Amino acid sequence: MKKYKPIAIAISGKKKARELKESVDARVYSGHDAQIKIAAMKDYDMLVNAIVGLSGIDATLEAIKNKKDIALANKETLVSAGEIIMKEAKKNNINIMPIDSEHSAIFQCLNGEKKSDVKRLILTCSGGALFKKTKEELEIVSARDALKHKTWNMGDKITIDSATLMNKGFEVIEAMWLYDLPLEKIDVIIHPQSIIHSMVEFNDGSIIAQLSNPDMKLPIQYALSYPERWESPIESLDFAKKLSFDKPDLDRFPCLKYAYEAAEKGGSLPAAMNAANDYMVQRFLNGQCKFLDIQRVIRKVMDEHKVIKNPTLEEIKKTIIEATIMAEKFCLYC
Ligand code: MN3
Questions:
Q1: Which of 1, 149, 151, 275 could form a disulfide with 194 if both were Cys (CB 3.0 to 4.6 A apart)?
Q2: Which of 228, 261, 294 is the last residue of a domain?
Q3: Cα of 156 to ligand 1 centre, how many Å?
Q4: pLDDT digits (tens, 9 = 90+) for 34-49
């Protein structure tokens, strides 16, 4: 706080906000709509949304209405409410810059190209911490096992999402919205070294890839610097490293398949899937269910959910609450 001297701060707890107000020289907003107030401010250039969870959607929508470009790291925004967000962004002529490494790579590969020339997007995937485990081993894997061995230094929730491949499923859905391409044109390939961050294949057979050492500083910085490129602290790539590729195993890691299905059926289904996943990953991290229960309960929730076509934001929020309750119910039998 002292280092960056923000002009305004949003914080959910009212008590903490009061304490903060005494000690810093900044506007302090609190309560459930605090981040919306920040997004509605006039004196900023770009909204970087890295809020975890559902409340990220409201802040994104507010910034769009406020005619601010957005750098997006919050997954819920496009996974659960992609249709609404993209429609509003288009209407208000707002750019949504990806912060995720895969989408940043695709953005860079597509730079100056025509969409009609794109044959397919190829999202790379590290495979996650449990990539080599057999089905039997996956039955007994603990949160501790899953949190070990990560290529990227990420939070616990996204590390588990990477291990189930649900994270890649989310990224497929995000890519569909960001680049307005059908699902048949979005592929996923396992690439454990995370050196190629994603690729685009064009109709003439050319494939353009974006490579670097895995470091989130680069895609974050590019979202801010675009169309310029600033110097960054990441090390140059050492080409002595071996790069390998593999197909994702949808039998052991079906969450990726579920995400394609949710995106295909559309409406409120991706939001329901996301909510079930949110709940189950938290349970798993708390040691309250098995790793494979995550995918089992998501499957059940997706089967049970009654899809609402063209949902409003209110309907999406309702879906999220209902799907969470449903997951909780199914998890009683975990
Ligand atoms: Mn990613």
A1: 151
A2: 261
A3: 14
A4: 999 999 999 999 999 9
Residues 6+ apart with CB under 8 A from 41: 8, 66
In a domain, 131, yes or no: yes
Predicted local distance difference test score (pLDDT) of residue 76: 81
Q: How far is the CA of 34 from the centre of ligand 1 (A)?
A: 27
DSSP per-residue codes, 188-220? EEE-TT--EEEEEEETTS-EEEEE--S-THHHH
pLDDT-wise least confident of 152-166, 183-197, 234-248, 293-307: 152-166
pLDDT at 192 exceeding the cut of 80: yes
Q: How many CB atoms lie within 10 A of CB 117?
A: 12
CA of 101 to the centre of ligand 1 (A): 5
Whole-number Cα distances in Å, 187 to 4, 50, 103, 176: 40, 25, 13, 11
CA of 100 to the centre of ligand 1 (A): 5
Residue 326 sits in the same domain as residue 177: no
In this structure, which amino acid lies at residue 111? N
- The CA–CA distances, whole Å, from 7 to 20, 51, 220 equal 13, 18, 21
Return the structure tokens found at 299: 């499957």
12: Cβ–Cβ under 8 A, 6 or more apart, which residues?
30, 31, 32, 34
pLDDT exceeds 70 at position 149: no
CA of 25 to the centre of ligand 1 (A): 36
To the question of pTM greater than 0.90 for the whole model, the response is yes
In a domain, 228, yes or no: yes
